[in-house]
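Work package 3, deliverable 3.1, input record:
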Amino acid sequence: MAAAQATSRSSSLIAIIGDEDTVTGFLLAGVGNVDLRRKTNYLVVDNKTTVKAIEDAFKDFTNREDVAIVLISQYIANMIRYQIDSYNKPLPAILEIPSKDHPYDATQDSILSRVKHMFTAETTIRT
Amino acid sequence: MPDDDSHQKQLEKEVWKCLDSVHHLLKRREILLQTLRQGWMELTSARYAMGPARISSPLFSLKPHAPSSVVDVRGLPSDSTGGNSAVEVENEPDGITVVFDLVRDRAENDPKTSVTKTSDFTGSDRGQPPSHLRRRVTSTISNDDEKKDQWEIESLLNDCGTEFGDESSLAEAPKETTQPLYWFGALVSPHLRSAQNSFSQALDLIVELVNAQNEATHAHSNVLKFQKATSVDEN
């Protein structure tokens, strides 16, 4: 019960790391937050954005206590795949989303690949 | 062996649960993709109608504002599978399942809502006014406006306590929400409003997707748990 209460948060933010159109769309939906230091909960990634900037943003969003969900476009997640694969905290939750110019690749989804691996291994053992 | 049979039955039950949750996850993903595509299409149409410079990231407002859509997180005890309670759930040693709920327009209804952390004000900012007050003091405006600003600064200082050491009251100052459509001008294309609707729907789907993802992960870990229990029984 104490642990359940410890994981309860209210009014948490949704952070976004994506291309301009994706970030614009979600900001229109009302997820944007700017604090008094002009610190935002989103990062617009374009062709000038470095991998280090993406890594720093991901690290920052995942370490913030007021962020509950981090949305990241899959093609951007692929740039920092090692960092995402090594992330194992329940909060904030990470969700990879498709982007306009890069279709979603289900084979790279961590949940689906684990389930697929599980059934492939089980089928091999039984045969 | 009754224990072997019960573990085997539990394993089959968990496998079906896992497959159902993955199926649900895939369905949600497909709907999200379609909704996002609709949103991108509307955004592109709005950009075509209004001009590319009128819908771009430099127009995003950097004035302090709170989001109108936030997420509530609840930690629920994991449902009991009725199996062997001695076997612990993998990756969830506390047996807690996290559930997300999307809440809209909370900041407008609750004047005390703020998502600013007290840690936003570091030790180096103590004794110094926040940047927006600093700008007010140094701005070149008329005498009447200067007096008004001085009065506002003094009243804020009085409200906040002696120095800016009372950071929690500053951090809890209500922030306004903003209507993001207005960042792009007073008159916007109807396509931009449609894009806003599409992305709002996508936001609902995303919260469902996160919950479905957690459920699928939980189901997968349960399957592994019972697989291990079953293989131990067979040995």
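Chain A touches chain B through 58 residues (CB under 8 Å).
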